[in-house]
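Page 42, continued from yesterday. The earlier attempt failed because a stray header line got pasted into the input along with the sequence. Redoing it now with the clean sequence only.
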Amino acid sequence: MRAPDSVSVIYEDGVMRVRMHLAELKKGSDIDLQLAPGKLELTAALAQYHYALALPTEARDEEAEAKFDKKSKTLTVSFPLSPAAATTAGSGLAASRNDPRSGEPYGSHATGEAVVEAAKAARAAAADAANAAHAAAALGRDRADATAAAASARAAKALGVAAVAEAGAAAVAATLRRAAERLAEARAAVQSAEAVEERAALESQQAEARSVEARSAAAIAEGEAAVAGETHLLA
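This time it went through. Structure tokens are written below.
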């Protein structure tokens, strides 16, 4: 999963607008938007996009509106602001905020906010790494399950052939022996599948360990960002 190609946050006319450029997205119906108090989260699984943004307390998420422009591949989510915040935005103190990753200044607390946004980006990257690790482990388990299912199907088929052979006469004795051989192969395949499943479980544990390391790195980055932000404000 990756972040949008670009993100901008703009304050104008008492409204906070979050614009995200999603170049790989084909249609708006592929977007899954989740709104919660203080948080906006976007997921577009088919295009491999995922992004989370912390919202200011003055943004009224219950009145948010979202629109996707297919031509420009841009999603705009608009949040009406509380009256006090709208007045502040109208005075020009928070007229616009550019993409935090671009490094462009936006308002009197530009550097501190940029550091916080960088920490959020690091946390999102860590989450992406953890998701990738989980996906790899899940793929291993899926392959093991598929192998076990195929082996079970072969075993069932072999048992069926054996049943037919037992119900027949001596003329089908050779078929019965072949069925026994297939059954042995099926059992070997089941054992192989179990070995694959054990390896998948080990990979899952390793992936979980990498996930923990990723979350730890994100937490450290967030802490460093917070310290940097406080240092800037004190300066």
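Notes: The chain has two domains: 6-108, 129-234.
Reminder to self: strip header lines before submitting.
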